[in-house]
Amino acid sequence: MSKPFFTVYCLIIYAFLLAPIAVVVIASFNAGAFLTFPPQGLSFRWYLVFFNNEVFMRAIRTSLWIAAMTTVISGIIGTMAAMFYVTHAGKLKETVRVAMLAPLLLPEVLTAISLLFFVYSVGLGTQNLVGMIVGHVLITLPFVFINVSASMESYDPAWSLAAQSLGAGRFTRFRRIMLPLIKPGVIGGCLFAFIISFDVFTISFMLKGVGMSTLPIQLFDYLRTNFTPEAAAVSTCSIVLTMAVVVISEKVLGLRIHRF
Amino acid sequence: MTEVSIEKLTKDYGQGPAVNSISIRIAEGEFISLLGPSGCGKTTTLKMIAGFEDATAGAIRFDGRDVVHVPVEKRDIGMVFQNYALFPHMTVEKNLAFGLEMRKIPKDEIRTRIAKVLDMVQLTGYSERYPRQLSGGQQQRVALARALVIEPKILLLDEPLANLDAKLREEMRVFIRDLQRRVGITTVYVTHDQAEAMTMSDRVVVMFGGRIAQIGTPSEIYERPANLEVAEFVGQVNIIRGKVGNRIVSTAFGDVPVSGDFADGAELMLALRPEALELLPIHSGATGAPAKVLSSYYSGSLVDYRLELAGGAVVNVQTFPRTRFADGDQVLVHAPAERFWPLGTVA
User: Fold this and answer.
1) Which parts of chain B fold into alpha helices (H)?
2) CATH, domain A54-252, list 3.30.390.80, 1.10.3720.10, 1.20.140.10, 3.40.50.720
């Protein structure tokens, strides 16, 4: 493929992928009363409506809280699972991998229904967030696991042995040697976990308590009866929010990869 | 300085012992090599001394104290790994500081000790580099410095020269040996390269199949090998067979007196190193066995010949290329009787 042709080809792909997002963002600045494209005049009016809409604000807070909890729990369990998988699983390696990836292979709605049965049969119910977070952790775990185990593959176990010979105990070896070297995988996995948890609908819908809702559920609910640009404003804010999480964690925690 | 004593050390992974009841006493400041083919148990032994492997049975004593149940991080060892295992996310300085920080040594002392050890391994000025910015030989020296800067009781090296090219390997041999002498640290060096073991060690431990075949100085191992396996593993060797009669073995090279208790009539194997033989022109009138040159390999400072004796036996001879013989030449081979070493009777 010649170079200018390849460039055009890439631009078309990008346009195809990004156009819907651009449409939503532009539509959110619509001054009119209905969700239309192109917008009829520009204004921040629907953002004001959205920010003053306590139902949406509560849904966003719930979603952020659940996503944060999910990221932490999934990050810890997924990293531990990846460490076990790469260094200790031995003959069980393939079994562990399939088990860890199983939530990806099952239809989400089946996972959601079985979880619903599960939380009621163990007496948890859906009136607290525990069942919901368990569900979110379950479906985000494979992403943490895949990312961390990929960066573990280039981790030389001799580094841990060397640290041990220099007097470092188990926890120091993890914190000072292994964690910095697998950090890109851990952060990448956690970002996936956060974004997926923030975005997931089916699981949240099944496991939510009465009167509780996450942003995707609230948005869906809203769009059933309304068709104002407020929905676009909500979507734009959630896009900006997820991008902010990615950018901030990249800047603060660093995704710089150590080349060996 | 630390004296290390290994007593009846055994490791069994469940399919028969990988290391079978070995005992070694390593004197303070001694440089010991564990030499043997792969799978002989030398690396397992080193890992047990380091603490990376549990011992199935036996004791490892540092200055009389059994350390078998002391975890690696408390054992106070310095270890150099085959691939160096430098921490890739840390500069040379941070790599060197790591072990000292673990020992809670004050910052300014860390700085002076790092400067000292960098000077020792001739890498002053490299402290801000990352391992990937260093050559193989430099990484090797950082690994040595990192192991030594903590002033461990014992230095352990696991085939540290295996990944270097031939010329650098020879330089590093001398470098490591000099450094070890200056520091005076008790050292255990694992290698499958007999030349490395011979040139660097005070004593060599030759291992086969999880057992010690022989412990001795390099010249003892080379000149008086304990058995056929050792003789063949360490350098080239000609095996000459002959029957004992009245403490004398008659060979193609003449009668060889043997010490030791060998029954009359027993068939004996004698080791004869290629460089112990001397080649003379056939008409020189000297004593020796007549032979024909089959082939010769010239390598500058030395020539290797393959010769066929009158009886059909083939011997290898290594000489200085002062007098050259061509393939097919008839020569006389002279072997001084004192250069034969009995390896035992033929099984």
Assistant:
1) 42-50, 72-75, 92-102, 107-120, 136-149, 166-183, 194-200, 218-223, 228-233
2) 1.10.3720.10
Alpha carbon of A171 to those of A77, A163, A178, A182, B73: distances in Å? 16, 11, 10, 15, 12
Same domain, B253 and B301: yes
Whole-angstrom distance, CA of residue B90 vs CA of residue A234: 44
Q: Are residues B320 and B220 in the same domain?
A: no
Classify burial at B226, counting beta carbons within 10 Å of its beta carbon; exposed 0-12, middle 13-18, buried 19 or more.
middle
Given this model, what pLDDT does residue B8 score? 94
- Name chain B contacts of A176, Cβ cutoff 8 Å: 98
Give the dihedral sign, CA A33/A37/A38/A44: positive
Q: Which of B50, B89, B132 sits opposite A165 (nearest CB)?
A: B50
Alpha-carbon gap, residue A182 to A180, rounded angstroms: 6
- pLDDT number for residue A1: 59
* CATH number for position B314: 2.40.50.140
Task: Give the total residue count for chain B.
Answer: 347
> Which chain A residues are Cβ-neighbours of B50 within 8 angstroms?
165
Interface contact B85-A167, CB threshold 8 A: no
Are residue B95 and residue B159 in the same domain, yes or no? Answer: yes
For residue A256, what pLDDT band results from cuts at 50, 70 and 90?
Answer: low
Domain span at residue B111 reads: 4-233
CB contact under 8 A, B147 and A165: yes
Which of B81, B103, B146 lies nearest to residue A158, judging by beta carbons? Answer: B81
**Shared domain check, B282 and B222:** no
Smallest CA–CA distance, residue A100 to chain B, in Å, is 29
Q: Which chain B residues are closer than 8 Å to A166 by Cβ?
A: 73, 98-99, 102, 146, 150
Interface test with A, best of B77, B87, B113 (most A CBs within 10 A): B87
CATH number at B109 reads: 3.40.50.300
- Tell me, yes or no, whether B47 and B186 share the same domain: yes
Q: What is the mean pLDDT of residues A187-205?
A: 89
| DSSP for B10-28, written as a single string | EEE-SSSEEEEEEEEEE-T
Interface of B with A in 306-335 (CB under 8 A): none
The last residue of a domain, from among B233, B263, B278: B233
Let me know whether B26 and B171 are in one domain.
Answer: yes
pLDDT of residue B61: 94
Instruction: Please report residues of A whose CB lies closer than 8 A to that of B52.
Output: 161, 164
Which positions 97-126 of B are in contact with A (Cβ < 8 Å)? 98-99, 102-103
Using the beta-carbon criterion (under 8 Å), do B73 and A168 form an inter-chain contact? yes
Q: pLDDT tens across B274-295, in order?
A: 999 888 888 877 788 888 999 9
Q: Among B212, B233, B254, where does a domain finish?
A: B233
The nearest alpha carbon in chain A to B49 belongs to: A165
The domain limits of chain A are 1-43, 54-252
Same domain, B176 and B276: no
